[in-house]
Amino acid sequence: MKRLIPLWITAIAGIVLIASYFVPYAQGLGELTSIWFDILAGFAFILGGGNLLKVHLKKVSDKVAGWGYSVILLASFLITLFVGLGKIGVHPSPDYPDNSWSGVYNEVGSPFWWLYEYAFKPLTATMFAMLAFYIASASFRAFRAKNVEAVLLLGTAFIILLGRTFAGVWLTSWLPESLSGLKIENISVYIMQVFNTAGSRAIIIGIALGIASTSLKVILGVDRSYLGSARSEP
Amino acid sequence: MNAAWAWTILVVVVGASLVVLVTRREQTYRALKDLDRRWIFLLMLLAVAIPILGELTFPEKPTGLAKAVFDEIEKLEPGDKVLMAWDYDPASEGELGPMATAFTYHCCKKGLKMYYMTIFSPVGPQMIDDSINNVLKTEFPHYEYGVDYVNLGYKPGYEGVVKVIVSDLKELYTTDHYGTSTRDIPMMKDIRNIQQMDLIVNVSAGYAGTKEWVLFATTPYPENIKMVAGTTGVMAPGMYPYIPDQLLSLLAAIKGAAEYEELVMSAYGNDDLGLKYRKGMLRMGPQLIAHVLIIILIIIANIIYFAEKRRGAA
Fold first, then answer.
1. Set of chain B residues whose Cβ sits within 8 Å of the Cβ of A192
2. Bond before A94 cis per omega within 30 degrees
3. Are residues B74 and B38 located together in one domain of the fold?
4. Please, which residues have CB within 8 angstroms of residue B92's CB and are 6 or more apart in sequence?
5. 20 to 30 A Cα–Cα from A86, which one of A7, A39, B53, B275?
């Protein structure tokens, strides 16, 4: 039963969603299934939070390597959850002044706003910005013209790198208008719109065929890997 | 700092490096071969920091894609409805924030009704708040919340949300981001679904974002739903196949933002606005120097590679 019911739910939801795309009468059912999906997606946050607690509490309890980071993660998670859900330091909404919980959770100046503005925002921006350093280091260590394919890739990379800045415009600004197609910024646009589009389309079509085949396997119950290990079945 | 100064500095640095390379060939070869990556990190820091601190800018010549995005918004009439789907977070704010600011400013100047929402991340509403606080409340204080713009906030479910709101918006959005019932918001009263929007403007950093809007909104309803988008650099190549039928046009990364800013500021800008609406252009300075640095690093690395091969063969 533990596996049979999810299998049936998946099969029915999948068939309904496919039918709703092609059969006008099934559109209402398709919308209903999508609404259920959105409600379940909301619950996934609770599941995700629970799983995070379970995994990191175990790491702390077993004192595995790096358990200190788990302590920091758990503390950050619980503090943010507490000040956000509890609306700590938030003023009541003007519409409901007697209800202390009626304010907006991220009100400017509140602890949750402070955590977002001065901890979350700079930390995530820093993580993203660090990519520039790794790209520079990787370009020095890994990008070698070892064969014809690598030379083509290098040439394309140089054109795109220059074409996405004023350097490309400046370097070929001396070319006459009749040869404007050879200007780096125009070659860069051509590469993106022709070669890149052709390659991307091929990949997208391949992925779509793969998704269709995998989805059919899931809907028909052939692929049951999403249900987890069969050993847990009673 | 102007472009002439930047080029002079660059030419001097490259020239001096070449002189050192020629006069002290063996020492340079050994030093570069065993180069500690921390020197590369330092060079990248300087390549990015100096143009930012010097407010280095370059002229931007808008490409066809940026012009197409600008023209699609220009075609709209005052009072037309625009769905502003802000699908990004603080991690990508540096790349996407400038175009979000420029989109908001352009829509305000056109007198459009703006419906903000996000399906990307629970912190998406804060990105919407940034646009509202930095543009709407400062430059357009006469714009009234609920009448001229609304923040519908975040809903979990990724493409599932798009699938529902194409036919019934209020099924999912019973309240706005601040908890006010959508029935009490004047500009929401006549809205049944997003097919009533005159344009979708999407700013996207990943999943769920531009691709999901294309697959589940513009593709099934090509007659009723039109969309333009701005994406991160890594996402842009994957979006080109959808242009122009499923996606009218695209701003790719900070370069796209800078081109669009140039168009918006040329049409609606004035000297009093300051640098807030030219952040894309300001960020093209560090992008240029960083790109040139990466090219130089690749060339040096390949010179070392071929020198090593030759020495090995000898």
1. 236-237, 240, 252
2. no
3. no
4. A128, B205, B206, B232
5. A39
Q: What is the pTM of this model?
A: 0.90
Interface confidence, given as ipTM, is: 0.86
Interface contact flag, A38 B40, Cβ < 8 Å: no
Domain at B197, CATH number: 3.40.50.10160
Residue listed under structure tokens 């010179």: B303
Q: What is the Cα–Cα distance from A232 to A2, expressed in whole angstroms?
A: 9
Is A124 in contact with B91 (Cβ distance < 8 A)?
A: yes
B75 Cβ neighbours under 8 A, 6+ residues apart:
none
Query: A110 in contact with B at a CB cutoff of 8 Å?
Result: no
pLDDT tens digit sequence for B46-74:
999 999 999 988 888 899 999 999 999 99
B35 shares its domain with B98: no
Could you tell me the residue range of the domain that residue B76 belongs to?
64-274
Interface test with A, best of B173, B288, B309 (most A CBs within 10 A): B288
| Chain A residues with beta carbon closer than 8 angstroms to that of B7 | 170
Looking at the structure, tell me whether residues B11 and B96 fall in a common domain: no
Residue B153: its H or E element:
strand B149-154
How far is A184 from B121, CA to CA, in rounded Å?
A: 37
If one counts the domains in chain B, the total is 2
